[in-house]
Write a structure and sequence with these properties.
The chain is α/β, with parallel strands linked by helices and 329 residues long. 46% of the residues lie in helices and 16% in strands.
Length: 329
């Protein structure tokens, strides 16, 4: 078979990519029955391993696929920073794949698998439930270790994040305890998995206080949401704002100040990320600190355990967070 890949061999033999690599490089570590089955498929398909495939077994050029949607967000660069730093320690090569919700997701999955990645970090939080289910099932069938990195989906898939629901609940409670009554949650029009958790936390705190939740959906693009906020401020009474992104919080704060509102005297404003932009705003933005770099680093380390067949006791890792008090609250 022309251009036969290690994935073709693994699929035909119904084993993982790592097993095929061990058969080719460390056959003594594979039980005889499995070894003979893989060798038979290799011969039948005429597979000839390339340098990348050999590296998968030697761990000198192990390749990890990072699947994401948008690299322009500040949080995305921090996640990648944590991933890359840990990958370097293990001599892993990182390949980045873009997966947009409007694209042919099956074709993108095929490309990722065909690249012979030994593990996958999934950072794309823009897919709906059905799309996520499709993606997870395909990678599961391909027997490639996978970890969700700052993405929330299901209970049986390894993941690393923070408890976004609890964090948003706590900061909402703080604003209400300070006497704020008209507290809004500013979120995106597009449904991101972590934002669903933030909404739940906010709604929980508002319900406990006997208040109706006020959710305002806008764009993550500040060139667009500034006009949304200008109209919002004309028509709504607000004394507290919690924004799912720092950029949204700062964009709102700028428009509120332009309308003569004082922050935090008239309106408390809080972000739910703590990116570098939080200390560049005036006033500095109070934030729930999401340890994005650490999420990336811990996700990469968890994935190495699966790829190296180490024992894993906790599939769902929730990292600690804290509230960084600045001037906007």
């Amino acid at each position: 078979m022309a251009n036969t890949t290690i994935y073709d061999v693994a699929g035909a033999a119904k084993v993982s990519l790592a097993t095929v690599s061990r058969v080719m490089n460390n056959p003594e570590k594979v039980n005889p029955e499995t070894r003979e089955k893989v060798l038979k498929v290799i011969k039948e398909l005429g597979y000839r391993p390339n340098a990348i495939a050999r590296g998968l077994a030697s761990r000198k050029t192990t390749t990890v696929g990072v699947v994401m949607a948008d690299v322009s967000r500040a949080s995305a660069s921090q996640l990648l920073g944590g991933i890359i730093d840990i990958a370097k320690k293990y001599d892993y090569v990182i390949k980045i794949f873009s997966m947009q919700e409007h694209e042919d997701i099956k074709e993108i999955i095929r490309v990722v698998v065909a690249e012979q990645v030994d593990g996958i970090l999934f950072l794309n939080d823009e897919l709906d439930h059905d799309q996520m289910e499709l993606v997870m099932n395909y990678f599961k069938d391909a027997q490639i270790p996978l970890v969700l990195c700052n993405v929330i989906f299901g209970d049986d898939i390894p993941s690393v994040s923070i408890d976004y629901e609890k964090a948003t609940y706590e900061i909402t409670k703080e604003l209400l305890a300070a006497g704020r009554k008209n507290v809004y949650l500013m979120t995106t029009v597009r449904r991101y998995s972590v934002n669903v958790q933030k909404i739940r936390g906010y709604e929980h705190a508002m319900a406990e206080a006997g208040l109706e939740p006020n959710i305002f959906r806008t764009s993550g693009d500040v060139s667009i949401n500034k006009y949304h906020f200008q109209e919002f401020l004309k028509n709504n009474e607000v004394d507290g704002v919690i924004a799912v992104r720092d950029s949204i919080a700062i964009s709102f704060m700028n428009e509120a100040i332009a309308k003569g509102k004082k922050v935090p005297e008239d309106i408390s404003v809080v972000g739910l990320q703590n990116t570098k932009y939080a200390i560049l705003s005036r006033p500095n933005l109070t934030c729930v600190d999401t340890p994005v770099y650490d999420i990336g680093a811990v996700s990469m380390r968890l994935l190495t355990k699966f790829m190296q067949h180490e024992e894993v006791s906790d599939y769902k890792i929730l990292l600690p967070y804290h509230i960084v008090e600045r001037e906007s609250k």
